[in-house]
Amino acid sequence: MPETMKAILKVGPHPGLELAPVSIPSVHDDEVLIKTKAVSVCGTDLHIYKWNDWAQMRIKRLPLILGHEFAGEVAEVGRSVKHISAGDYVSADSHVVCGRCLQCRIGQQHICNNLEILGVDRDGCFAEYVAIPARGVWKNDPGVPTEYASVQDPLGNAVYCTLVEPVAGKSVLIVGDGPIGLFSAGVARVSGASWVGLIGHHPSRMDVAKKMGADSLFHGDDDDIEQRIMDITDGNGIDVVLEMSGSEKGLKQGLMLLRKGGRISLFGLFPAPVQINLTNQIIFKGITMYGINGRIIFDTWERMHNLLKSGRLDISPVITHRLAFDDYEKAFELLMERPKKAVKVVLMM
Q: Among candidates 222, 29, 54, 110, which has minimal Cα distance to 197?
């Protein structure tokens, strides 16, 4: 094995990234070293690329190797690792957990009190090799293509958000046309939702939503969304709302359209505090509200595995671009392009 590898780095506190040689990480006793085959670009990576206010507040150490979505092959295992072997085809949850805190001990590892996020708090996967604690590694089904396996982190967000309660026989409205909202359309469809709608703003992404199984599409600025959805639901409102936009307008729209006794899952991150009428929109309506963070480790991964292996969930429409690893600048340019056309961009090693 060589001593150095190519990596995409945030070198200093300014916009942009660099492709540079760095040392291949050493492996601790409880870790595995993975040779990456495919990595995908997330909105978090875009924030760090731009070095916006969120990145300046959140990133505590530089230089930093970016990236938390990947698939690869195990190259080396630590001395105490027994359930993973060299040559295994794997991905990993981006939430690196301690295994000791209260949350980890009671099955809530995804919100570990000492959580580190790959490519944010520690070096990530935008490199030829990445070292990760074995407890967070997932063995992929050999039949799943590497580009599909590389996007299981955001796909898992969609699976958790959509299926935190069953959706079979229910109407599902997704607010937001980002990658996870688009994944959610497919998850809801194959999980038995009676109707799937999506509110978005970008025509190319609305086209992807249709391919993923959405029955009805609504532009976020349309004035007649409420009336159209009430007509579709016989005046009752939506059974399940998935808020993926992170906008106050989207949240209020979702709460307004949710039926009494319905369920709303909140995944979108809001840039500022929002005001909602708790009495009338939540308490008196008797709704159930979930805050969604990450994926349930490994319940969500088992569900994803089954959906992908079955062939019923086709995520190919969401992966709009595949580029060579060295073309990372092109990947970020595509994701910053307006009007938006790219959804998920995968870099192939």
A: 222
Dihedral angle sign, alpha carbons of residues 60, 63, 69, 71: negative
How far, in Å, CA of 195 to CA of 218, rounded? Answer: 14
Q: Which two tokens stand for residue 296?
A: 């349930």
pLDDT of amino acid 1: 80
- According to CATH, what is the number of the domain 158-291? 3.40.50.720
List pLDDT tens digits, range 63-106. Answer: 999 999 999 999 999 999 999 999 999 999 999 999 999 999 99
H-run or E-run covering 19: strand 18-23
Spatial distance between the Cα atoms of 93 and 101, rounded to a whole number of angstroms: 18
User: Maximum Cα–Cα distance for the chain, whole Å?
Assistant: 65
Which pLDDT value is given to residue 157? 98
- CB proximity list for 231: less than 8 A, separation 6 or greater: none
Q: Name the residue type at position 197.
A: G
**Of 36, 44, 146, 162, which one is the catalytic site residue?**
44
- CA angle, corner 172, sides to 169 and 175, nearest 5? 175
44 belongs to the catalytic site: yes
Active-site residue (options: 14, 36, 47, 320): 47
Pairwise CA distance, residues 145 & 119, whole Å: 23
Instruction: Look at the domain 4-151+315-348 and name its fold.
Output: Quinone Oxidoreductase; Chain A, domain 1 (3.90.180)
Q: Delimit the CATH 3.40.50.720 region(s) of the chain.
A: 158-291
CB 74 within 8 A of CB 127: no
The pTM of the whole model exceeds 0.90? yes
